[in-house]
Design a protein that fits this description.
Layout: H1 32-41, H2 44-54, H3 64-79, E1 83-84, E2 94-101, E3 107-117, E4 125-126, E5 146-152, H4 158-163, E6 170-173, H5 177-186, E7 191-195, E8 225-229, H6 231-243, E9 251-261, E10 265-272, E11 277-287, H7 297-315, E12 323-330, H8 334-341, H9 344-349, E13 350-356, H10 363-366, E14 369-373, H11 407-422, E15 426-429, H12 437-442, E16 447-453, H13 470-489, H14 492-522, H15 527-546, H16 559-571
Parallel strand pairs: 1-2, 5-6, 6-7, 7-8, 11-12, 11-13, 13-16, 14-15
Antiparallel strand pairs: 2-10, 3-4, 3-9, 5-9, 10-12, 14-16
Helix pairs in contact: 1-13, 2-7, 2-13, 3-7, 7-13, 11-13, 14-15, 14-16, 15-16
The structure holds zinc ion (ZN).
Length: 578
C-alpha cells in the first residue's frame, strides 16, 4: 500500500502552537514547486543515452572504459554549465573537478575474446556478446589466437593436475578459477576455461549464455589467461569431449586480447555550490566500475542527468540551494570513503548521503522492484511486514545498530510523490550494505541506497542496455534530485513539511507494527517482547524528530513544534491486549 502524507501548516508565525493535520493525499505544498520542476525537468531518455554509451565498456578503475565514462560525464557537465573548479571565479555556482590518483596495480582492459571448437565456423562465445568472458587480470594469447588441446582437470586440485598433462594445452575446470588458475599455470597450461555456478537469482538454467564478471590473480610471468564459460558453452564442450578420442582429442581456438597499462584512477566531483552554507553538503555517489548496464552505467547516467537539471533549475532561480549539492562518480565505496576521509573539515559538513546503484531496471525484463535500502532502523532488527530483505542478503541487526533518523522515511516519501503521479512501484528493504551508502554510515552520516533487486541479470553480461528503462531512470532521478534539492534549500516551510510527514509516517508505522504484534500474540508471542518492539519504534521516531532541526538552513525555533510532534508519537503507540 503506498504511503500517504500529511498536508502542511501555513507557517505564518514560526513559534505558533503546532497543530498536526490528518493524513494528506498529496505532496506537502511547500515541496510542490521544486518537486514539479524536477519531475518536468528530468529526462529519462537523455539519461538512457549516457547509459547506452557507458555500458559499452568493461569499466575498472584506471582502465580505458572507466575513463571513457569519466570523460563523458565531464563533457555533459560542461554542456550543462559546470566549469573547471581550478579556473572558476569564486562566485561560480556550478563547478567540477577530476581527481587523479596513481594506482598500485596496472589498469586492465579487455579488448577482444573468442572461443571456438577447432574446425567449427561459429564461436561458442565471443566478447561482443559475452562482455564478461575474460577473467579480470587475464594476459593474452598470441595475436590472432591459439589452437590447442583441451584437458579436463575437474575441480582443478593438485591431485587433479597430477593425473593429467596440461603442458602447452588448455585446462577445463569446474573449480573456482581464482584458485585453479595459478595451478594451471604452474602445470604449464597456456590458459584456463572455467565454468561458473551462478547464484540462484541469476536463473542460470534459463539464462544459459550469461557469464558473471570475476577475476583471477595476475600472472606477469606466463601472461596466462582465463576464459569464463557459460552453461551453454560448458554443455557444448562436454559433448565435444565425450565425442573426442585419444587420436582426435578436443581442440579449441582461443583468442584473448587484453591491455595492462600504468594509468591513474580518476574520480569526478561536481558541485552546485550552496548560496549561504556552501560548507554543508548533500552528497550523491554513483560507482563507475563494473561492466553492467544497470550495474552501474545506470547510476552514472542518472546522476549526470540530475546534475544537468540541478544546474538548469539553479540558473533559472527555481531551485535556491543554500547548501551544496555534490555529485561523485568514481570507484565504488573507495571514492566515497576517500571523499569523507581526506578532508575532515569537509567531512564535518557532509549532512546526508545517497548512493545510486542499479537505478535503471526494466523490471518487466529483470524482475524485482525499485528499492530504497534504509539505514538501520527497527525493521532491520525485527524484520516483518512490508520491508523485507532481498535475495542479495542481509543479516538481522542488533538494537544498538539502529540509527534513529528521519532520512529513510523522507526519501521514501519523495519517491512516493513520483509514484503517486506515475504508478511507479516503490519499495524499501532493511539495511544490507554493499554500496556507496556504507562509507557515509560508517562516518555516522545519514545515507540510503537507491537500487533494484532481484535483477536476474545481476553481475552477468546479460545486464545490457536492453534491460535498462528510460522511464525508470526518470523516476529514480526525479526522486533522488528532489530529495537533495529540498534539503539543500532547508527553508522553514520545508522543515515543517518534513516534520509533518514524519509524524504521519510514525503514526502509520506504529499502527502497522501494532497490528503485526497483535498477529504475533495471536500466534503465541509474548506481550512483553511485542510491547518492547513497539517502544523501540516509538523511541526511534522520537529521536528522529530531534534530528529535524538539522534541516533548517536559517535559525528556526522548533521547540513547540517538536514537543507537539513527540506527543503525537507517544499517543500513537498501540496498547496490546493483556
Ligand atoms: Zn553496483
Amino acid at each position: 500500500m503506498p504511503i500517504a502524507r500529511t498536508g502542511l501548516l501555513s507557517l505564518a508565525v514560526i513559534a505558533a502552537p503546532y497543530v498536526l493535520r490528518a493524513q494528506p493525499a498529496a505532496t506537502p505544498a511547500p515541496f510542490a514547486p521544486l518537486t514539479n520542476a524536477v519531475h518536468r525537468g528530468i529526462d529519462g531518455e537523455r539519461a538512457l543515452r549516457t547509459v547506452s554509451f557507458v555500458q559499452q565498456y568493461f569499466r575498472l578503475p584506471g582502465n580505458r572504459g572507466f575513463d571513457a565514462a569519466i570523460d563523458t560525464v565531464a563533457a555533459l557537465l560542461r554542456a550543462a554549465g559546470y566549469v573547471r573548479e581550478d579556473s572558476a571565479p569564486p562566485t561560480a555556482r556550478l563547478v567540477y573537478r577530476i581527481e587523479s590518483r596513481p594506482m598500485a596495480q596496472p589498469a586492465w582492459t579487455p579488448l577482444d575474446g573468442r572461443l571456438t571448437i577447432a574446425g567449427q565456423a561459429q564461436p561458442l562465445q565471443a566478447f561482443a556478446t559475452n562482455l564478461n568472458m575474460l577473467a579480470i587480470n587475464s594476459g593474452a594469447t598470441p595475436e590472432g589466437g591459439v589452437t590447442a588441446e583441451v584437458v579436463d582437470v575437474g575441480a582443478g586440485t593438485d591431485a587433479d593436475f597430477a593425473k593429467v598433462n596440461v603442458q602447452g594445452r588448455i585446462a577445463l575446470t569446474t573449480g573456482a578459477a581464482r584458485g585453479v588458475f595459478p595451478r594451471a599455470m604452474a602445470a604449464g597450461a597456456i590458459g584456463l576455461l572455467a565454468t561458473q555456478k551462478l547464484p540462484a537469482y541469476n536463473q542460470q538454467e534459463k539464462n544459459r549464455t550469461a557469464i558473471q564478471f570475476n577475476s583471477v590473480p595476475r600472472d606477469t610471468i606466463r601472461n596466462g589467461w582465463t576464459i569464463f564459460i557459460s552453461l551453454a558453452t560448458h554443455d557444448a564442450l562436454r559433448a565435444a569431449l565425450a565425442a573426442a578420442t585419444p587420436a582426435a582429442p578436443l581442440r579449441v581456438h582461443a583468442l584473448v586480447r587484453t591491455l595492462s597499462e600504468v594509468r591513474p584512477e580518476r574520480t569526478i566531483v561536481a558541485e552546485v555550490r550552496g548560496a549561504t552554507r556552501p560548507g554543508e553538503r548533500f552528497v550523491y555517489s554513483a560507482h563507475v566500475q563494473e561492466p553492467g548496464a544497470n550495474d552501474n552505467a545506470s547510476g552514472v547516467g542518472a546522476l549526470a542527468e540530475m546534475a544537468r537539471v540541478a544546474a538548469d533549475l539553479v540558473k533559472r532561480n527555481i531551485a535556491r540551494p543554500q547548501r551544496t549539492l555534490t555529485f561523485l562518480w568514481g570507484d565504488e565505496i573507495r571514492a566515497t570513503d576517500r571523499y569523507l576521509k581526506e578532508d575532515s573539515v569537509r567531512r564535518a559538513g557532509v549532512k546526508w548521503g545517497m548512493s545510486l546503484d542499479m537505478v535503471g531496471e526494466n523490471t518487466a525484463l529483470t524482475g524485482g522492484t525499485f528499492l530504497i535500502e534504509k539505514m538501520p532502523d527497527p525493521s532491520a532488527v525485527w524484520v516483518r511486514g512490508e520491508d523485507q530483505h532481498t535475495e542479495w542478503g542481509g543479516r538481522v541487526l542488533a538494537e544498538k545498530d539502529i540509527r534513529a533518523h528521519w532520512f529513510n522515511d523522507y526519501v521514501r516519501s519523495r519517491c512516493l510523490d513520483r509514484a503517486r503521479a506515475t504508478g511507479w512501484v516503490v519499495k524499501a528493504n532493511p539495511f544490507e550494505g554493499g554500496s556507496d551508502h556504507t562509507p557515509f554510515l560508517t562516518a555516522q552520516i545519514p545515507a540510503v541506497l537507491l537500487w533494484h533487486f532481484t535483477d536476474q541479470f545481476y553481475h552477468t553480461d546479460a545486464d545490457r542496455i536492453g534491460m535498462v528503462s528510460a522511464t525508470t531512470l526518470g523516476h529514480v532521478g526525479s526522486c533522488a534530485l528532489t530529495a537533495g534539492l529540498l534539503l539543500a534549500d532547508g527553508s522553514a516551510a520545508i522543515v515543517r513539511g518534513v516534520l509533518d510527514e514524519l509524524v504521519a509516517t510514525a503514526e502509520r508505522t506504529l499502527r502497522t507494527q501494532g497490528q503485526l504484534s497483535r498477529d504475533t500474540l495471536a500466534r503465541g508471542g509474548t506481550r512483553a517482547h511485542e510491547q518492547h518492539i513497539l517502544e523501540v519504534w516509538r523511541d526511534y521516531y522520537i529521536q528522529a524528530i530531534d534530528r529535524i532541526p538539522e534541516i533548517a538552513s536559517a535559525p528556526l525555533d522548533l521547540t513547540a513544534a517538536l514537543e507537539a510532534a513527540k506527543r503525537r508519537v507517544r499517543a500513537a503507540v498501540p496498547n496490546l491486549p493483556q
